[in-house]
Design a protein that fits this description.
By secondary structure, the protein is an all-alpha fold. The chain has two helices and no strands. It has one domain.
Length: 45
């Protein structure tokens, strides 16, 4: 449970607001660099 929200509602809010973050170039660069065994190059995007 999140402060003032039931668990189900809090999880829905988390999914709504975090989903766009995981679509950024930087979010994709981290795992890609790891798989390629190199340092990530983050561009702030």
């Amino acid at each position: 449970e999140c402060i003032g929200h039931p668990e189900k509602e809090a999880l829905a809010m988390e999914a709504k607001f975090s989903a766009p973050v995981f679509q950024t170039e930087d979010a994709k660069e981290g795992p890609k660099a790891f798989m390629e065994k190199r340092e990530p190059v983050f561009k702030g995007r």
